[in-house]
Amino acid sequence: MVGEYGGYANEYEDEELEEIRRRKLLEYQRRLLQLMEEERKKREFEVKKEAALRRILTPEARSRLANLKIIKPQLAEALELEIIRLAQEGRIPIPVTDETLKKLLIQIDKQYRREIRIRRL
After folding, report:
1. Cα–Cα distance for residue pair 110/105, rounded to 1 Å
2. Is 51 helix (H, G, I), strand (E, B) or coil?
3. How many CA atoms lie within 13 A of 75 on its CB side?
4. 3-class DSSP state for residue 96?
5. Fewest beta carbons within 10 Å, which of 18, 83, 101, 109?
6. What is the CATH number of the domain that holds 100?
7. How many domains does the chain have?
8. Global pTM?
């Protein structure tokens, strides 16, 4: 179809559309790379966290934590991070036994419930 510019309008529009497509493709590729990098960092963090917990917890304590993850994943995550923090600071004896884990779980659970109540108000 010949436009009022003697057929050049379609060529110009095609080039413009192609440029828009190219920019969008580049943006999608950039976002995909960004997401892949975030996922890699998350996996790396999880591997390091699991390795730290294997060093810190007794087998019984790890088993209890695994069971808790199934039932209350958010609480288990908070407990894992707290255990690692306390161990790094030297504030809990290593290895952490099941009995020590239970005590920490009670403390974290109280704090966790308090935060939930505050958020609901």
Report:
1. 8
2. helix
3. 24
4. strand
5. 18
6. 1.10.8.140
7. 2
8. 0.67
